[in-house]
Amino acid sequence: MCTSRLRSWPARLALLIAALAGPGCGPSLSTSTETERDEIGAAVPVTLEVPEPRAGEPRPLTVRVWAAPEVRARTGWRERIVDEVDYASQFLAQLVGIQLEVTEIKDWDRRGDLGGARAELAATDPGAGAAWVIGVVDGPDKPTAAQVALGESALLGKHVVVRAWGDAVETEVLAARVAGVKPAARGEVLGAHRRHKQAVVLLHHLLRSLGAITETDPAWLMATAYAPSQAGLSDRNRAVVQLGADARVRSADAAGAELASAMLGSIEASAWGGWVERDHDDVVIQLRAIIDAARAGKAASDVPTEIYDQFQRAQALARGGKLAEAAAELEPLLAAYPAQASLRLLDCELALRAAPADAALPDTALQRCRRVTALAGGDARPHLLLAGALAAHQDKAGALAELAAAEPKVVASADPPRGWAALADAYAQLGALSLAERAAINTGRADHPIALTARTQRVRYGVTPGAVAPADEGELVAAVRGALELIYKDKLAEAAKAIAAARKRWPKAAGPGGALCDLELRKNRIAQAKAECERALAIYPDASWPRYLLGIIALRGVTGGAKLDPGLAHLRGAIASDPDLGQAWRALGKALARGQRDAELAQLRIDYQARFGQALE
Questions:
Q1: Of 73, 211, 232, 312, which sits with the fewest C-beta atoms within 10 Å of its C-beta?
Q2: CB-based contact 390:402 (threshold 8 Å)
Q3: What is the 3-state secondary structure (H, E, C) of 37-86?
Q4: Both 531 and 559 in a single domain?
């Protein structure tokens, strides 16, 4: 039974404590001290728990997993995925009576972080026959607890992407927590943290796809940031998720008005302050949109009533990846209604998806899509479709032109915020930071995740506003990031060449100068490093990396007193520009501790916990 399987994990940790707290190769509980057992117990995360497990046998739901190259490069990667999905499945079995059955783990030839990963996963595997398709991409390259940085899913969607466990990063984060644990036990303790964190991240995004809303309590799985103390789900979210789980058991593609109405009724049954207000409102809006679309019915659709069912069949076939069958279903409809915009839009989509991936888009596909823009002059969707296809075929200029053509149509549409959100996502996938940030802000949300991410990349990698063409911004970020990686790998000569090339191409960008400052600092050429950092900040005062490095330089050899102040000011400035720059927070904490500024350090610890969901060590 799943109850016993889930509850076996704390028992396993109890055995770990008993077996590893004592000395020697074959220790036992009787040879360990109470202090050692307490140290191990305090070091491991809590156990996932369901206070009132659902009765009955769990219902199986099929899952396919796609693993990126960086994930597959690690020893034991497949066993890790199975282990983490199994732990999540045990929890879901008790929570809502479903059990995840991984039928395939497939190679995914997709590199990089979360940006655009879910859309690429959906294009790779539309999800036919599966309740969920899960993509696993490379782990983060810096410590983070933010769920938006660890995974991605959509309300009532079936595609979920999560980041893998970053061994080096996570080991660094947990170093203080396991410091009191005997070396023989540390591997298992770290394994417990991996299993807990990866299961919680996966559960967070699976639950999101089943209707869960983010919560204000940091102890719940639907909190905005991960914590080792997270163990369960609120009763209110559990009620909503139960509806989504039951519907998914009935149909893997369940996302209709009946389900949306039931979920909305559960959410609005009574007021509850435990949900994050913005996310609650977003979910309610999305559910109402599903209901309203269904109420509009066939008569309100621009597709003639007499062909609507066949049109839906063609759409379903396309969603299932059966492009030839969808085209065959659509062909007679196009013959009968050659000027019908929705039919032509589906025809455009099929043409783009059928195009060979290793060549430019065929003129025939482009012509079929241009016909839609002529028939539906005010519709931005054809431009968005074309932009995505052109980007996939390495035509960034063409993609940006299509998105620019879509903008006035989004402004004039019935739902501009939704259109701007689609544009923001498309611009972000192209690496056009300034355009992505502007589009995200135009949704009406200054705190839109894409806007925040774009700003973070801009200040971190020194993309000086107005100094770089939007089409080049992503390349500049990649160049600076690549140079920094070479520095950290101690390939200093290669890093110097990369920085020189970047400075030549983008002379008004601060990023290459910040990287050169880092390189000079690594060579212990302090005066040169300081000069390069100051030059970078003169170009772009908000650039966070050179500001952080100036703080490090200013604090060299300083133990306390007023001499700390210049370095502290630089570190605080870096944090103000780039609140997610964990290195600056930690350096500031060490400097405050060194200067015995206890009150400031105490406040910094509070702020760090709120920002990153973990203690400042």
A1: 73
A2: yes
A3: HHHHHHHCCCCCCCCCCCCCCCEEEEEEEEECHHHHCCCCHHHHHHHHHH
A4: no
Q: Is residue 299 part of a domain?
A: no
Distance CA 159, CA 449 (A): 19
**Cα dist. 593→174, 217, 571, 584 in Å?**
20, 30, 14, 14
What pTM was computed for the model?
0.51
Q: Residue 35: exposed, middle, or buried by beta-carbon count in 10 A (0-12, 13-18, 19+)?
A: exposed
> Which residue's entry shows tokens 């894409």?
450
Task: Tell whether 311 is covered by a domain.
Answer: yes
**Per-residue pLDDT for 295 more than 50?**
yes
Percent helix, strand and coil across the chain, each to the nearest 5:
65, 5, 30
pLDDT at 183: 77
Same domain? For 490 and 615 the reply is: no
d(Cα 565, Cα 232) in Å, to the nearest integer? 44
pLDDT at 253: 64
CATH of the domain at 399: 1.25.40.10
In a domain, 290, yes or no: no
Element (DSSP H or E) covering residue 162: strand 159-163
Q: Tokens representing 299?
A: 């008569």
Q: What radius of gyration do the chain's Cα atoms show?
A: 26
Same domain, 342 and 199: no
Contact partners, residue 302, CB within 8 Å, separation at least 6: 340, 341, 342
* Interatomic CA distance for residues 562 and 586, integer angstroms: 20
Give the H/E segment covering residue 281: helix 277-300
Q: What is the DSSP letter of 367?
A: H
Q: How many Å apart are CA 373 and CA 379, to the nearest integer? A: 7
Mean pLDDT over the full length of the chain: 86
The domain in which residue 514 lies consists of: 461-544
Residues 177 and 86 in one domain: yes
Classify 121 as helix, strand or coil: helix
Residues 519 and 606 in one domain: no
Exposed / middle / buried, residue 427 (Cβ in 10 Å: 0-12, 13-18, 19+): buried
The answer to whether residue 601 sits within a structural domain is: yes
Find the helix or strand (DSSP H, E) in which 36 lies: helix 34-43
- Beta-bridge mates of residue 115: none
**What is the b/e burial string over 576-602, where b = at least 16 CB atoms within 10 angstroms of the residue's CB?**
ebbbbbbbbbbbbbebbeebebeebbe
What are the tens digits of pLDDT across the range 38-67?
Answer: 566 677 888 898 999 999 999 999 999 999
112 with 246, same domain? yes
Residues 112 and 201 placed together within one structural domain of the fold: yes
Residue by residue, DSSP assigns 522-569 as HTT-HHHHHHHHHHHHHH-TT-HHHHHHHHHHHTTT--SGGGGHHHHH
Question: What pLDDT does 39 receive?
Answer: 60
Q: Say how many CA atoms lie within 13 Å of 264 toward its Cβ.
A: 19
Residues 182 and 319 in one domain: no
